[in-house]
């Protein structure tokens, strides 16, 4: 499940592979940009903002940015030119090559080339992994919807950017609140601080862990563990459907009915 840390790590790999180099070939496999050709343009930077990723390019005076979003299934593969693709070719949405590196974006939910990239993320709240992370603004944004379930509010990228389905369940567990608890009834500064700490700790980890353990099957407290015993108290973990506000509808939330009392 791509969350802010996944995108941050993808930006890190793309930056290492592409930054400072001219593109020798580009192939946009989305109708709107099918004829766009950025070969000859140089990659000037790669950055993530929440779950959005930008590959900035320039040619002389002209600048643009390749904006992408992983949505549910997206992934960037970066490797030496000619590396075998790890996903089927028909799922590739964009291919970017330099002299020695090939980057392929598979199953991306969004691919577009923007002259003014700031517009794509103008609606987002503070970025949990951004240089200008602002906890106080994130808390204030969340507090404006006191009756919203905290598990729904945490997914609203307009309030704070970077949390997905995995982290919302884990954060609620760590704070002993149900995902359905009202925003007004939870410790918002504490929750925001936990969100920031978890994403920061995991930003470049190959295996995401909220328990502090990266051994297989022991990385998470409750996410994906329905019908299994809570790691803290042994009670059976429950899965419930809870909406997201990012257009992806109902999604699973997990909690321990004993550790997280209503
Ligand atoms: Zn428990």
From TrEMBL:
Protein name: DNA-(apurinic or apyrimidinic site) lyase
Keyword annotations of the record: DNA damage, DNA repair, DNA-binding, Glycosidase, Hydrolase, Lyase, Metal-binding, Multifunctional enzyme, Zinc, Zinc-finger
InterPro entries referenced in this protein's UniProt entry, alphabetically: FPG_cat (IPR012319), FPG_N (IPR035937), H2TH_FPG (IPR015886), Nei2_N (IPR044090), Ribosomal_uS13-like_H2TH (IPR010979), Znf_DNA_glyclase/AP_lyase (IPR000214)
Enzyme Commission designation: 4.2.99.18
Residue ranges of every copy of the FPG-type domain listed in the record: 221-261
Domain Formamidopyrimidine-DNA glycosylase catalytic, chain residue ranges per copy: 2-105
Record family assignment: Belongs to the FPG family.
Keyword Electron transport: no
Pfam families from the UniProt entry: Fapy_DNA_glyco, H2TH
EC top class, as a word: lyase
Cited PROSITE patterns: FPG_CAT, ZF_FPG_2
Keyword Zinc-finger: yes
């Amino acid at each position: 499940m791509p969350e802010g840390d996944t995108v941050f790590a993808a930006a890190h790999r793309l930056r290492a592979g592409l930054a400072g180099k001219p593109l020798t070939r580009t192939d946009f496999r989305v109708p709107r940009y099918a004829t766009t050709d950025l070969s000859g343009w140089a990659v000037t930077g790669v950055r993530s903002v929440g779950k959005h990723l930008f590959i900035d390019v320039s040619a002389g005076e002209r600048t643009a940015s390749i904006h992408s979003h992983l949505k549910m299934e997206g992934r960037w593969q970066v490797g030496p030119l000619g590396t075998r693709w790890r996903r089927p070719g028909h799922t590739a949405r964009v291919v970017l090559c330099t002299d020695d590196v090939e980057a392929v974006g598979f199953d991306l939910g969004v691919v577009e080339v923007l002259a003014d990239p700031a517009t794509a993320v103008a609606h987002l709240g503070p970025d949990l992994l951004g240089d200008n992370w602002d906890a106080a603004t994130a808390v204030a944004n969340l507090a404006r919807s006191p009756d919203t379930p905290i598990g729904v509010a945490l997914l609203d990228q307009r309030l704070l950017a970077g949390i997905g389905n995995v982290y919302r369940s884990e954060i609620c567990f760590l704070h002993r609140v149900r995902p359905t608890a009202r925003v007004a009834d939870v410790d918002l500064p504490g929750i925001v601080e936990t969100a920031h700490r978890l994403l920061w700790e995991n930003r470049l980890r190959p295996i995401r862990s909220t328990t502090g353990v990266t051994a297989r099957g022991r990385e998470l407290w409750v996410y994906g563990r329905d019908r299994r015993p809570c790691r803290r108290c042994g009670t059976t973990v429950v899965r419930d459907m809870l909406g997201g506000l990012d257009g992806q509808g109902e999604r699973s939330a997990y909690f321990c009915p004993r550790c997280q009392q209503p």
